[in-house]
Amino acid sequence: MIIESRELRLRHRIPVNRIGKYWKGLEEGKVYKTVCRCGRSYYPPRAECVCGNQTDWVEITGKGIVECFTVVHSIPSCFEWSKPYRIVIARFGDVRVMGWCEDEVVVGDEVSIFTAMDGSGVWKVWFRRG
Ligand SMILES: [Zn+2]
What we know:
By secondary structure, this protein is mainly beta. It has two domains: about 15-60, no CATH class; about 60-130, CATH 2.40.50. About 5% of the residues lie in helices and about 40% in strands. It has one helix at about 20-25, and strands at about 30-35, 40, 55-60, 65-70, 85-90, 95-100, 110-115, 125-130. The strands form two sheets. Strands 4-5-6-8-7 form a five-stranded mixed barrel. A three-stranded antiparallel beta sheet has the order 2-1-3. The radius of gyration is 17 Å and the shape is globular. Zinc ion (ZN) binds near residues 36, 38, 49 and 53. Zinc ion binds near residues 38, 40, 49 and 51.
């Protein structure tokens, strides 16, 4: 049985002016979280903590630990590569970060974080093993 399908493209506009540093950071190779003096940390970043204080920007550095991942075998036609890739969630201290990964990883592996622009001009968070 053949299931007919067609591509559906969605575009969303979200306000980013209060978290512009995050998007600018990706272009500079940096991934930021925000932290509050009450002890809470946020990733994705939030400009304001649930306690009402303004948060501070802190770069996420060092090694993360893979907590879960999925392997994507169905590659969209707009991608510039054709091999399977991974969407990984890794813990970096007090935050979990989702990113893309071309390396084979398993839960518990150490990963490094970096940023790169994809073929459509969008900056993304990436991991590499080790
Ligand atoms: Zn707070």
